[in-house]
């Protein structure tokens, strides 16, 4: 093999350095590509988790809204039942009031009839006594 000169050796060393740097750059690029792919996978996984979390939130929100609607329906149902019971109680109270009024009126009429009867009886007795007194007075004269 022919002997190479110092210039050739220097150039060979420069080329070796260049090839080494190119190989290192290529290896670095590969590492970056792998790292980038890993990051992209992680980002996609996180994005999927975020989307799943958002879906769960929306689902929870839907369940809450349905629960609120159900609760409102139950409240309206209970309100209606309470109002019906109030009306029923008011009706019963009104009937009892009318019943008591009727009984009181009947008692008043009964007492009034008895008083009227006693008044007539007393008047009759008084008239009898007056007639007796008048008869005695006329006999005494």
UniProtKB/TrEMBL annotation:
**Spans of biased composition, class Basic and acidic residues?**
45-55
Stretches the record annotates as Disordered: 45-69
- What is the name of the protein in this document? Uncharacterized protein
Organism equals: Araneus ventricosus
């Amino acid at each position: 093999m022919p002997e190479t000169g110092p210039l050739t050796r220097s150039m060979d060393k420069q080329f070796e350095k260049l090839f080494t740097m190119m190989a290192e750059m290529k290896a670095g690029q590969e590492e970056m590509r792998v790292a980038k792919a890993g990051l992209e996978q992680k980002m996609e996984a996180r994005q999927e988790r975020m989307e799943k979390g958002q879906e769960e939130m929306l689902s929870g929100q839907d369940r809450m809204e349905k629960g609120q609607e159900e609760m409102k329906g139950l409240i309206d149902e209970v309100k209606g039942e309470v109002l019906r019971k109030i009306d029923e109680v008011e009706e019963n109270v009104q009937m009892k009031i009318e019943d008591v009024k009727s009984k009181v009126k009947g008692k008043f009429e009964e007492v009034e009839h008895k008083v009227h009867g006693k008044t007539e009886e007393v008047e009759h007795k008084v008239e009898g006594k007056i007639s007796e007194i008048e008869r005695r007075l006329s006999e005494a004269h």
